[in-house]
Amino acid sequence: MTPAPRRTHHAAPPREDVLAAAMATIAERGLDGLTMAGLGRDVGMSSGHLLYYFRTKDELLLRTLEWSESRLGAERRALLDRPGSARERLEAYIGLYLPAGHRDPHWTLWLEVWGRSQNADDDARARQAAIEGAWHRDLVALLAEGISRGEFRPVDADRYAARLRALLDGFSIHVTVGIPGTGREQVLAQAAEFLDETLSPGTA
Known about the structure:
The protein is mainly α. The chain has helices at 15-29, 36-43, 47-54, 57-81, 86-97, 105-116, 122-148, 157-177, 184-199. Helices cover 71% and strands 0% of the residues.
């Protein structure tokens, strides 16, 4: 009697591979192209298996955002630690903060998570706040350094950081959705002009 063939067990891919695949799908096909079934096919898992790990699509999106933010966070810390003036590093921070262009996948994902957060639970809101807090703390520290060196005029670093990030958020939405006249290069120029008007020593 011929023995029955043994079933081969395929281990699930590392969770980071799943999140990378989700971000790649968003970059290639947008959020409408990201489905549990499609993502499962891309990584060799069933949609049920994905739901076992992530429970809901909202959780998958938030996990993917956290994964993307961890990579941006490492890049942000590296640019803030490099030599150069505080103004040069502030401009690099702004360049990293802003979308690369229309339909930037990271910002597309951010906007989706923000939209869904109206009905999010306390844990999800706290995790979103942690992402925002990391960007804010690094900006406050950079502003404080520039003020102490005399590169920037004395301002309340925390309040200025909140206002600058609100400005960048607004511009970033325009760039991501493709509003005419608000391309990345135009927004970078607007941000530089804003810094000149509000942060340069001797400005009112």
